[in-house]
Design a protein that fits this description.
Layout (H helix, E strand, L loop, with lengths): L2 H9 L5 E4 L7 H18 L1 H8 L7 H15 L5 E14 L4 E12 L2 E9 L5 E6 L1
Antiparallel strand pairs: 1-2, 2-3, 3-4, 4-5
Helix pairs in contact: 2-3, 3-4
Length: 134
């Protein structure tokens, strides 16, 4: 994946954020593990259920969660069985409006017939604050 595409994918969902080093409150391995757990849960139970359970309160409306659920369904149609996580990139971001550091991961999930890129954002308490499949 080109560096430009990666930058675009990470910047779009976090308008109002500045790129930073990963804040000391974050552990890169924990971010990777938690993101993979979330994607696994989404594959098993659907995005709507998972996001309602794991999303930090006030970050997404029920309507937005429903849209994300439909987006995941649309993206996974025809992809076949999940194979592996092939790329994982973790960066830090500072959200200006919330004045909080965030941990962001771009995860590529590979399937028999394609890939889905997930951008997942966590606050310092490892609560889910962003979830964007593409």
């Amino acid at each position: 994946m080109s560096a430009l595409l990666l930058c675009i994918l990470l910047c779009i969902p976090l308008t109002g954020c500045n790129s930073t080093e990963l804040a000391k409150e974050f552990d890169e391995d924990t971010i990777i593990k938690t993101a993979q757990e979330i994607i696994n849960e989404v594959q098993l139970n659907g995005a709507e259920t998972v996001l309602k359970e794991r999303m930090r309160e006030g970050m997404m409306t029920d309507e937005q969660i429903g849209e994300m659920d439909q987006m995941v369904k649309d993206l996974t149609v025809g992809k076949g069985n999940f194979i592996a996580y092939t790329e994982k990139t973790v960066i830090g971001r500072h959200h200006e409006e919330l004045d909080e550091d965030m941990g962001v991961i771009l995860v590529t999930a590979s399937y028999e017939k394609g890939e889905i890129n997930y951008t997942i954002t966590f606050d310092t308490d490892m609560r889910l604050v962003g979830f964007y499949p593409k």
